[in-house]
Design brief:
- By secondary structure, the protein is mostly helical.
- The chain has one helix at about 10-95.
């Protein structure tokens, strides 16, 4: 069996320095990740704003088309009514003339 030696102060300090460097590297990685996340968040917010604007435009168009469609249907029924009245008038004139 071999005896294990106690770590020296130099070994402990070297290990602490290695850990300190690892921690600093992790801090830098976190800082870079935070920067990227901030860019992504700003970009996503801009996309949402653009999408909301586009959605409003689309909804306005849909509303306009629905109103126009309603007007067309109302006009069609009015024309059918007018044609019916005209046809009844023609039939009545023909009936009177016979």
């Amino acid at each position: 069996m071999t005896a294990t030696s106690e770590p020296t102060l130099r070994d402990v300090l070297s290990a602490i320095e290695g850990i300190r460097q690892d921690v600093e590297g992790i801090r830098q990685d976190v800082a870079r990740t935070n920067e990227r996340l901030e860019i992504v968040v700003v970009d996503q917010a801009q996309r949402w704003t653009e999408q909301e604007t586009e959605n409003r435009v689309i909804l306005d168009r849909i509303d306009s088309y629905q109103k126009a469609s309603t007007q067309v249907v109302n006009l069609a029924f009015a024309l059918i009514g007018a044609a019916t009245v005209a046809l009844v008038g023609i039939v009545l004139r023909l009936a009177v003339n016979l």
